[in-house]
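Z., the sequence and structure:
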Amino acid sequence: MTPLTKGRYTVRPAVQDDMAAIFGLRAVCFGAAGAVADRCDATATHVLVCDAQTQVAVAAFRMSVLDGAQIGHSYAAQFYGLEALTAFDGPMLELGRFCIHPAHSDPDILRIAWAALTACVDGRGVQMLFGCSSFAGTQTAPYMDAFALLRARHLGPARWLPAVKAAEVFRYAAQINARPDLARAHAAMPPLLRTYLMMGGWVSDHAVVDRAMGTLHVFTALETRAIPPARKRLLRALV
């Protein structure tokens, strides 16, 4: 990918010397477990968003392009049964370890990150983005409205839905019947998940309780053909 600067921020591929900064960001956002490298780190493309003046890292993520035959090697496949996606016809991009430093809440950070992703999607002909969208902590109570909204509006198509694989899950689609309070639901949604959903993304029918990372997460996917044309134009205008 080509480095991109817009306003206060630059997004660029990471090099080996950047990995300490990336693991430091993960530790802040995910705790000590987030700073431990896993098998996906060795093969993924790592990306940094930095302050353009100070070069301080404010966000990071990794991405891996896979096809259906490789889906079992994805990070998400550790937690979700993704056998249905082996039949998906087209390249897929797994977006992982997406983190924004909590001291930097400028929405332009997320925008420039998505602009970089858009360039990769266009360049590689990616037809689906997927990953795990994380809620902070492992308690479900603070997020009941958010889960109720996911159940009501954003469950994935039956043909692609992941099966339960993890030992500890919250089957919110089966357990929640209440109507969501929309204000509380949107306030509780992680920013990355909100962005996926705004572009037509969908989620699994259960959340995984990941005690090692101290998070709850849902499998999240976005078929690129579902992205509204106006939003595609906005993202490409940043490239």
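Residues 4-237 form a domain with the Aminopeptidase fold (CATH 3.40.630.30). DSSP finds seven helices and eleven strands in the chain.

Let me know what you think.
H.
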